[in-house]
Each structure stands twice: as C-alpha cells, then as structure tokens.
Write a structure and sequence with these properties.
Number of domains: 2
Order of helices and strands: EEHEEEHEEEEHEEHHEEEHEEEE
Strand content: 35-45%
Oligomer: single chain
Radius of gyration: 19 Å
Number of strands: 18
Structural class: alpha+beta
C-alpha cells in the first residue's frame, strides 16, 4: 500500500485582529497534485465557510492561482478567502515581504491585492485590500416575501426594494430598519425558495441596516452549505454599490466605511470598504486584518 501523501494547511481568522473572531479559513499553500474531487472532499472535511487550495498560476504576472471551495461547491471568487490567502502568501514568503501590490488568479479572473503595511514597531499586521471584480445588477424581489422568508415584520424592512447584485457570487440585498431586525432575521433553504420563487440558480441573502460607521450585517447561504457566514468580502463591494444607489452612504471618491458582520453568531468581523472615484466608478476595495490561528497536516 503506498504511503500517504501529506498536505500542510494553515487556519487563519479573517477580518479581525482578535483570535477566534472573524471568519475562519483553511489555506493549503502547496496544493499541487490534488484533483477537483479531492479538493471538494477536503473542504467538506474542514467544514468551514471556505477552504482555499493554492496552486501554480497560469501566467507569470500572477503570484498564485487560488481555488476556493465551500463544503458543497467551488466558488469563482470570495472575499475572506482572497484576503486570508494573501496574508498566508505574504507570511510564508511566497509573495516577498514588503510587496505592496500583487495579483491573484481566481476563476472570476485576476484579483488585484493591495497591502497597507502596519507599524513594525508595534507588531501591527498589514491591512490587506482586494479590488472587487466588476459588479452586475439583476432582478428585484418582493419586500413582503422577503420579510416572510426572514421571519420579520414587513415594517422591519426599509422602504427599499431588495435586489440581486453580484461580483462573482449572486447575492440578494435586503435593507432592514435597525440592528434588532438584523439580529432577529433568520433564513434556511425553505426561506430562500420563498424569496427567489422559481429561479433555479443558488443565491446568497445579505441583510443589513445602515449605521453611523457604515453597515451592520448578516449573510445567509444555505444553498452553498453555509447557514450563516461570519464575513462576506465578495458581498461588501456590491453592498457599497447598493447603499450608494439608495443614498444610505456617501458616494464621494475616497469614502471609507466599515461593515460589521458575524456579531450575532459570536464571530464579530470588521470589513473595510473604500471607494475609488465618485460612486466607486474607479473600483471598490474591500480590506481587513488577518489573525493566524493554527497549522496542521492532512494525510491522504
């Protein structure tokens, strides 16, 4: 019987400076040799929102190629895996220390990374930014059906029509009246079917309320094997676009705000959003800090 092959992995908490908060992520920094089926099985074994497999890029201009899996399917793009993997690549020297910009290859296409270095004298970790892929707008949804699906009253929704937006992961954005309504909301697969009706394609559902700092939010993705996600970077760029469209946040160039997510589930995450150009016309960056938690070896 052949000897098992070992694959090293790192676990990091993304969008937090506090251990055991934020969104946990498993990263396999040397995943060459694993096929798609095995990657999916490993992601199911890890049972985190996402697991990342780093393989050689197809072009020299990319620092690495990143494969992202939930417990049930592969994603073309996701925010906390992109930020967390960038940290691991910098921490391990795959991307040279001091690098301020690099590009990762993902199924959605090239994703630009920007590194805002922390103060060395205080041991501050870098703030890692990704540039959100192009944002597309889709259909709108019935407010009353959304309230029913979330288990909240109709008056708990702001007078804003829920809408589908995507930067790689289709997401329905629903604006609620206050933090209490966000905390009271819940969504399972049946609720998703109430919202989307006959649509077959899977969706994520992002609920939020505008606050002084930016937004207070939760995200549900039962169709992706993720009942609730502690932090959703791929939805934060579209969140900014949705909030700007409905005048819930300033669209001025250079605007920064914070989306707080995961607090209700005990995994408080802080996602920083920055607009380039008026209304984010020149891009929307999403950033966060990363905290390393664990290392291990998987033997197959």
């Amino acid at each position: 019987m052949p000897s098992p092959r070992s694959y090293r992995y790192r676990v990091v908490d993304v969008f937090t400076t506090q251990p055991l908060e934020g969104n946990p992520l498993a990263v396999f920094p040397e995943a060459s040799g694993l096929d798609d089926v095995t990657m999916q099985k490993i992601a199911r074994e890890m049972n985190l929102s996402e697991t990342v497999f780093v393989v050689p890029a197809t072009r020299a201009s990319f620092s690495a190629r990143v494969r992202i899996f939930t417990p049930t399917r592969e994603l073309p793009f996701a925010g906390h895996p992109t930020v967390g993997t960038s940290f691991v690549l910098l921490d391990e020297g795959t991307v040279p220390a001091g690098t301020k910009q690099f590009v990762l290859e993902e199924k959605v296409g090239p994703v630009a990374i920007r590194v805002e270095q922390g103060r060395v004298e205080t041991g501050e970790r870098p703030l890692i930014w990704l540039t959100t892929p192009p944002i597309s707008y889709g259909r709108t949804y019935d407010r009353l059906r959304c309230a029913q699906a979330l288990g909240v009253a109709a008056h708990d929704l702001l007078d804003i029509t829920p809408q589908w937006l995507s930067a790689g992961n289709p997401t329905v954005f629903i604006a609620l009246r206050d933090r209490r309504a966000v905390d009271d909301a819940w969504l399972d697969s049946h609720g998703v079917s109430i919202i989307k009706g006959a649509d077959a394609a899977p969706i994520c559902v992002f609920v939020f309320t505008p606050v002084l700092e930016g937004a207070y939010a939760r995200m549900f993705a039962p169709e992706y094997g993720v009942p609730e996600d502690p932090a959703t970077g791929s939805s934060s760029g579209p969140l900014a676009a949705f909030m700007i469209r409905h005048r819930l946040v300033s669209g001025a160039a250079g605007t920064r705000f914070v989306s707080e997510q995961g607090t209700k589930m005990g995994r408080r995450s802080l996602l920083y959003v920055e607009l380039h150009g008026a209304g984010g016309a020149d891009g929307v960056d999403v950033g966060g800090y990363v905290t390393p938690i664990a290392e291990g070896t998987l033997k197959l």
